[in-house]
Amino acid sequence: MGTASAGNPDTMSRTRLYRDGVLEAEDFPVDEVSKRLDDPAAVVWLDLCDPTEDDFATIADELSLHRLAVEDALHARQRPKLDRYEKHSFLNTYAVRFDSGPGQLDVTEISAFITENALVTVHKSGQFDIDALTRRWDEADNLAKAGVGFLVHGLLDYVVDGQFEAVQALDEQLEELEDLVFDDSADHAEVQQRSSRLRKSLVALRRVVLPMREVVDTLMRRGLRIVDDELAPYFEDVRDHVRHASEWTDSLRELVATIRETQLNIQGNRLNIIMKKVTSWAAIIAVPTAITGFYGQNVPYPGFEQSWGFWVSTVAIIAVSAGLYTIFKRRDWL
After folding, report:
1. How far from chain centre, in Å, is Cα 248?
2. Nearest-CA neighbor of 54 among 70, 77, 72?
3. Phi and psi of 168, rounded to 5°?
4. N or C: which end of the chain has fewer CB within 10 A?
5. Average pLDDT over residues 104-113
6. For residue 187, what pLDDT is reported?
7. Average pLDDT in the 243-250 region?
8. C-alpha distance from residue 205 to each of 138, 176, 211, 257 (Å)
């Protein structure tokens, strides 16, 4: 269950309080965050859905959030990044989900403020499964004693796993598309449309996956004091997934280019075959036209006004046309 923000009743919020690695409270009012943070042993998570500037005003003052970071959180379409400020860090990332039906990639921007004992996440309504994130934390509650690093790991682990699954699903779709390219019974117009949709989804996916390598590397620096020795192997696992996803998207980019080039080559070959067939049939059709035209002259010629002249022209048409057809067939022009 979420609670409405005090600043804006339309802004939904979620809250959690951990103390000494134990979840003590959940979904308490936002205006209690500062009071609960007075305890140095407390770690608080606050999630804001569709917040306004007024919603941020109180939280920004209580947590000493930098004005530039708040502006980045309020304005969409920031690149994936990790910015460091004096009293906190600002993380921007994207959760993705690939819909294999239309071949479309759904992208959700998530911003996070990381302080010494608090994590504030910001996102748009209806686009991020916050319950899936909390389940991820509950499944790894043995790491909760690590404090804010535990919350950051759960968030990144959930996001990166979603990106990896999207890359895997996109790879499967591209393999199916590769088979359809060589299928003569396939609807080639639909294949081209599907290829275009998958290419756009891949471009969007690369934009959010590739920068994550730098984000995770920066988070793991000891100077930030977010990742301790206990969390280091878990963040290393996330980094490994990020690298794998990044390398996979690069290989898919080459695969898309290859499929597109193959499509163009196949189209060119089909056009050449059609042109050969049209030209061959035009040559065959020209034979009876030429012969009947010759026998249609208004001057005497062998067989003029004789029945055997008609049969000679008919036999000539059939023989020459059959000869041309045989020659073109042997050369695979028909």
Report:
1. 12
2. 70
3. -65, -45
4. N
5. 93
6. 75
7. 93
8. 28, 19, 11, 16
Q: Range with the lowest mean pLDDT among 18-27, 179-188, 273-282? A: 179-188
SS (H, E, C) the chain: CCEECCCCCCCEEEEEEEECCEEEEECCCHHHHHHHCCCCCEEEEEEEECCCHHHHHHHHHHHCCCHHHHHHHHCCCCCCEEEECCCCEEEEEEEEEEECCCCEEEEEEEEEEECCCEEEEEECCCCCCHHHHHHHHHHCHHHHHHCHHHHHHHHHHHHHHHHHHHHHHHHHHHHHHHHHHCCCCCCHHHHHHHHHHHHHHHHHHHHHHCCHHHHHHHHCCHHHCCCCCCCHHHHHHHHHHHHHHHHHHHHHHHHHHHHHHHHHHHHHHHHHHHHHHHHHHHHHHHHHHHHHHHHCCCCCCCCCCCHHHHHHHHHHHHHHHHHHHHHHHHCCCC
Residue 309 or 155, more confident: 155
The pLDDT of residue 8: 54
Give the pLDDT mean for 37-52: 90
Burial 297-313 (b: 16+ CB within 10 A, else e): eeeeeeeeeeeeeeeeb
Q: Which two tokens stand for residue 7?
A: 């600043």
Tens of pLDDT, residues 198-208: 889 999 999 99
- Enumerate residues 6+ apart whose C-beta is below 8 A from 80: 92, 93, 94, 208, 211, 212, 215
Tell whether the model's pLDDT for residue 143 goes beyond 90. Answer: yes
Which band of pLDDT confidence, cut at 50, 70 and 90, is reported for residue 182? confident
Tokens in use for 66?
């930098």
Closest C-alpha to 7, from 52, 73, 60 = 52
> Is residue 126 pLDDT above 80, yes or no?
no
CB-hemisphere CA count at 13 Å for 173? 25
Question: Cα(117)–Cα(17) distance, rounded to whole angstroms?
Answer: 10
Determine contact, residues 151/101, Cβ cutoff 8 Å: no
By the 8 A CB rule, do 231 and 189 touch? no
Cα distance between the two ends of the chain: 70
